[in-house]
């Protein structure tokens, strides 16, 4: 074969290869087989996950708004007795140790750091934090691995719209988290790859306080809304896929979901402004055990104002 012929074949091979790449990248993704485990995220087809090549690192915020003033009405922190399973507790009613801090009342010293969120007086609940839906959040940071646990908080949305997150266990780090999420049609759901997910409600309203709790043990995950159980789902088979557009199996993602690398209130998934909570959050708790139905009911009643 002469030299020009070889050059022509090499050029043709390069063109063919590149065309293959383009075809692969642009091939429509399908998500038809998905069910409750990928729930809302399957419906929107995970466009971010499909496009990304590697998840970005959690971003350390560079811009810090003026801190909220410490109100004189707040009380000194009195840690709860040990042994109650509380790993973190922010009532926002107590004075913290430093500027831009919120007090952890669990006794574990996990005071949060405030990034722009504003301490506010709520007509119903007293001291709560307001998040502006652009860049406000509170970081509790790294908390380690929770083989079983419960996340509980009160929330009030100023607007109910896609896809704002009041809480995440891994600030702005894409799928590597347990996160809670609202959508414009009034649904409120959880994203927790490898654990099991569900809808808390399909009729969420703005300017209304709701209590949310999500618990998990070694077998299943449980959702509660305003103190009542609303879903229970077994953890998916560790070898099963989590989503057509997301690599790695359920076992991999379960490990990611249970490792609380950077707990954040007021944000989830990414730093897109649409991911920040617009509204209020109060009485955040994380337990290192799965509270049962009766304990969740009591927690709801005890923290309802
Ligand atoms: Ca409060």
Lay out the secondary structure.
Elements: H1 3-26, H2 39-44, H3 47-51, E1 86-90, E2 101-102, E3 112-115, E4 118-122, E5 126-132, E6 137-141, E7 144-145, E8 149-157, E9 167-168, E10 178-182, E11 188-192, E12 199-201, E13 209-216, E14 220-225, E15 228-234, E16 241-243, E17 246-249, H4 250-258, E18 259-260, E19 263-265, E20 278-287, H5 293-303
The structure holds calcium ion.
Calcium ion is lined by residues 91-93, 125-128, 282-283.
Tell me what the structure shows:
With 305 residues, the chain is α+β, with helices and mostly antiparallel strands. It has one domain (32-303): Jelly Rolls, CATH 2.60.120.200. Helix content is 18%, strand content 32%. The chain has helices at 3-26, 39-44, 47-51, 250-258, 293-303; strands at 86-90, 101-102, 112-115, 118-122, 126-132, 137-141, 144-145, 149-157, 167-168, 178-182, 188-192, 199-201, 209-216, 220-225, 228-234, 241-243, 246-249, 259-260, 263-265, 278-287. The strands form five sheets. Strands 1, 4, 5, 8, 13, 14, 15 and 20 form an eight-stranded antiparallel beta sheet that branches. A five-stranded antiparallel beta sheet has the order 2-3-6-19-9, with no helix packed on it. The chain has a three-stranded antiparallel beta sheet with strand order 10-11-12. A hairpin with a 2-residue loop joins strand 16 (241-243) and strand 17 (246-249). It is globular. Mean pLDDT is 82; it is low at 4-56 and 61-72. Calcium ion (CA) binds at residues 91-93, 125-128, 282-283.
């Amino acid at each position: 074969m002469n030299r020009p012929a070889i050059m022509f074949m090499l050029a043709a091979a390069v063109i063919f290869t590149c065309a293959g790449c383009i075809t692969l990248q642009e091939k429509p993704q399908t998500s038809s087989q998905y069910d409750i485990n990928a729930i809302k995220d399957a419906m929107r087809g995970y466009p971010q996950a499909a496009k990304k090549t590697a998840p970005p690192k959690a971003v350390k915020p560079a811009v810090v708004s003026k801190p909220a003033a410490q109100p004189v009405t707040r009380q000194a922190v009195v840690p709860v007795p040990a042994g109650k399973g509380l790993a973190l507790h922010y009532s926002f009613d107590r004075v913290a140790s430093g500027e831009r801090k919120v007090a952890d009342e669990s006794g574990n010293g996990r005071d949060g750091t405030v990034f722009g969120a504003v301490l506010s007086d709520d007509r119903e609940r007293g001291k709560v934090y307001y998040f502006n839906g652009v860049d406000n959040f509170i970081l509790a940071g790294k908390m380690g691995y929770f083989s079983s646990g419960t996340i509980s908080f009160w929330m009030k949305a100023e607007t109910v719209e896609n896809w704002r997150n009041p809480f995440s266990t891994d600030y702005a780090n894409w799928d590597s988290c347990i996160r809670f999420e609202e959508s414009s049609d009034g649904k409120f759901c959880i994203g927790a790859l490898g654990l099991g997910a569900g809808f808390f409600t399909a009729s969420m309203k703005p300017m209304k306080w709701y209590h949310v709790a999500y618990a998990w043990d070694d077998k299943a995950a449980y959702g509660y809304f305003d103190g009542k159980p609303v879903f229970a789902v077994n953890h998916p088979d560790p070898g099963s896929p989590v989503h057509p557009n997301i690599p790695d199996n359920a076992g991999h993602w379960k490990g990611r979901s249970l490792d609380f690398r950077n707990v954040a209130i007021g944000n989830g998934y990414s730093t897109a402004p649409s991911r920040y909570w617009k509204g209020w959050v109060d009485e955040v708790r994380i337990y290192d055990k799965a509270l049962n139905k009766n304990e969740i009911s009591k927690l709801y009643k005890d923290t309802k104002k």
